[in-house]
Design a protein that fits this description.
The structure holds two protein chains of two kinds.
Chain A: E1 2-11, E2 14-20, E3 23-24, E4 29-34, H1 40-47, E5 55-60, E6 63-65, H2 69-72, E7 76-79, H3 91-100, H4 116-126, H5 142-153, E8 160-164, H6 172-187, E9 191-196, H7 199-205, E10 208-213, E11 216-222, H8 223-226, E12 229-237, H9 240-247, E13 251-255, E14 258-261, H10 266-275, E15 280-287, H11 290-297
Parallel strand pairs in A: 4-9, 4-10, 7-8, 8-9
Antiparallel strand pairs in A: 1-2, 1-3, 1-5, 5-6, 10-11, 12-14, 12-15, 13-14
Helix pairs in contact in A: 3-4, 4-5
Chain B: H1 2-9, H2 12-35, H3 58-66, H4 70-89, H5 91-96, H6 102-136, E1 145-146, E2 152-153, H7 155-186, H8 190-208, H9 238-264
Antiparallel strand pairs in B: 1-2
Helix pairs in contact in B: 1-6, 2-3, 2-4, 2-6, 3-6, 4-6, 4-7, 4-8, 6-7, 7-8, 7-9
Classes of the chains: A alpha/beta, B mainly alpha.
């Protein structure tokens, strides 16, 4: 669905995006992670043809961008760096205007001008703005604007959703609603490219992860690979001394009442401990959290450094 | 394109601008009707000396009143807002990924601006005619209208010459519009685009008053603005009218090309 080769964007002497090779296939929920200023938004803008890359190739739905934009973009819904709407118009009117702008894609998704307001109303209902769609956007809260932006992205039932920080400004309840909504869309066959700096969001939702660090793509893996067991077992016990005696040299780390044991088979560790009468509180394979993985792979930021 | 018109004319601001545009000539007309003191011929805005005799001519006088400053300000505000306003509101990126082609968007904006100018100019003419007719009264038909050259024009002649004047004024505003539109593609701040276009105009008007700038004067955008007055000479003095049209066409072409070249190759980072 999305493929870039050597994507590079320089603004003057600053290299915002450096040799990025994204690969998102159909059916993915791709989490695009990175700190503030790491180049996420610039990459998203390049994908959508808003920013023209200095070097490199971009393919969206198998077609080159930005050349094939007029054929590809109708099938892509997007939210780029926050929502935007005309403040003096209602949410409904904004969606209708957006829907009427530009060339209409053909086929079943096209839709004519007759059901334009129905389409807008449906999109508003999906994101939970059904009741307030008639108020002017000026009076919307940040969360409501965010929902309106999502409604605009989903207006045409796109094959691919490119969402830049979609839960920005939403309350926990709203974040959960959006997560469920995105999961439903994904089950219905939509590929989702989600850029975020919220690890939890990506952790709960995504199947694949790309990590951008200072413009470079340092990780691109499926989430399950990243979080695969490390081949060690963690034991939590009150009998630390006894456990160490039983397991001997396999014990690698002792942190208080927590032991890390070199063994990929927690069941056997458990059997040995229980046979020796060690009271085990908790036991399981060691998994790295996404946060740990990211900490390992990104270069440390100097204090005070936010973006280059 | 229809969308751009809906956007422009759906805003209260657009109508306020057109309303304000009509306020000054109406005020002038009320004052004239009240005091009956017209400027002496050759002083003050064109035609104002003639309107006491024939109120219907106030339509043309109204055009001459708003042309030097009010009309260009209104045009610069609307055209400067065209692209930069969308950029500032953040809606530009959503339009472009909709997708609306960049060239297409620029053309749609231009059409909306032209319609706005036309509506503005026509409204000034019509309202000028109406207030002149009712406040200043008509001259007896036998006198009809005396052209600037002294001969009598029939109402039919005045009518078609007024239509030509409306078109000419609209066209001469397009140079300002193109300037503001070009600046609007270079910045994300509508205010800078508008002020930039106005600075360009004020600079041009200033140079027209300086004798030392004489070699430049035939090429200044505001040089032939008031040449629509020549349409009311008998016979019509075409030389300045046609020079004005040619000059505006050059400005329009160059600036629109610059706007297009800049907008289609630019990174949209707003």
């Amino acid at each position: 669905m999305i493929r870039t080769e050597g994507l590079t964007k320089r603004f003057g002497s600053v290299t915002a995006v450096d040799d990025v090779g994204l690969d998102v296939s159909a059916g993915d929920i791709y989490g695009f992670l990175g700190a503030n200023g790491s180049g996420k938004t610039t990459t998203v803008r390049c994908l959508l043809g808003l920013v023209l890359p200095t070097q490199g190739r971009i393919e969206l739905l198998g077609r080159p961008m930005p050349k094939a934009g007029r054929d590809v973009l109708p099938k892509v819904g997007s939210l780029v760096e926050g929502p935007a709407a005309y403040g003096h118009l209602s949410g409904q009117a904004n969606l209708v205007l957006l829907d009427a702008s530009g060339r209409q894609p053909g086929g079943p998704l096209g839709g004519g001008r007759r059901d334009r307001s129905d389409r807008a109303r449906r999109a508003l209902e999906v994101v939970g703005l059904g009741d307030v769609g008639r108020r002017p956007v000026r009076a919307y809260s940040l969360g409501m604007r965010q929902r309106l932006g999502l409604a605009a992205a989903m207006l045409r039932q796109p094959e691919l959703l490119v969402l830049d920080e979609p839960t920005n400004g939403l309350d926990p309840q709203g974040i959960r609603e959006i997560r469920i909504l995105l999961q439903q869309l994904h089950e219905a066959g939509t590929t989702i490219f989600l850029s975020s700096h919220l690890l939890a969001e990506v952790d709960q939702l995504c199947t694949r992860v790309g990590l951008l660090d200072r413009g470079r793509l340092v990780i691109q893996e499926s989430l399950s690979t990243l979080r695969a067991p490390t081949g060690r077992t963690v034991v939590d016990t009150s009998d630390v001394a006894l456990a160490k005696e039983v397991l001997g040299p396999a014990v690698e780390v002792v942190e208080g009442e927590r032991l890390v044991i070199r063994s990929a088979d927690p069941a056997r560790v458990n059997a040995r401990l229980v046979a020796a009468g060690v009271a085990v509180r908790e036991l399981g394979p060691e998994r790295r959290t996404l946060e740990q993985v990211i900490e390992e792979r990104t270069s440390a930021r100097r204090p005070g450094e936010v973006a280059r | 394109m229809r969308v751009e018109l809906v956007k422009l004319f759906g805003r209260r601001r657009t109508w306020v601008a057109i309303g304000l545009l009509n306020l000054l000539p109406t005020l002038v007309c009320v004052l004239l009707a009240w005091t009956r003191i017209a400027p002496r011929p050759g002083q003050g805005p064109a035609f104002l000396s003639a309107v006491i005799a024939n109120g219907s001519l106030f339509a043309i006088a109204a055009l001459a009143i708003v042309l030097p400053l009010f009309l260009p300000i209104a045009v610069a505000v609307v055209a400067g807002d065209a692209v930069a306003g969308e950029a500032q509101a953040g809606t530009l990126r959503y339009l472009l990924v909709r997708p609306v082609g960049r060239t297409r968007l620029l053309v749609a904006k231009l059409v909306a601006i032209v319609v706005f100018v036309l509506v503005g100019v026509v409204s000034v003419t019509v309202i000028g005619f109406v207030v002149g007719h009712f406040l200043l009264g008509d001259a007896p038909l036998s006198q009809a209208m005396v052209s600037i050259s002294g001969s009598v024009l029939t109402p039919g002649q005045v009518a078609w010459r007024t239509v030509a004047a409306v078109l000419l004024v609209t066209f001469s505003m397009l140079g300002v519009a193109a300037m503001a539109l070009f600046l609007s593609t270079t910045t994300d701040s509508p205010l800078s685009a508008t002020l930039g276009a106005l600075a360009f105009l004020i600079g041009s008007s200033l140079l027209l008053t300086i004798d030392a700038a004489q070699p430049l004067q035939p090429y200044l955008p505001t040089r032939y603005w008031l040449s629509f007055v020549d349409l009311y000479r008998d016979p019509i003095l075409w030389s300045n009218v046609s020079r004005g049209i040619a000059l505006q066409a050059v400005y329009l072409g160059v600036l629109l090309l610059a706007a297009w070249a800049n907008f289609t190759t630019r990174d949209v980072t707003s």
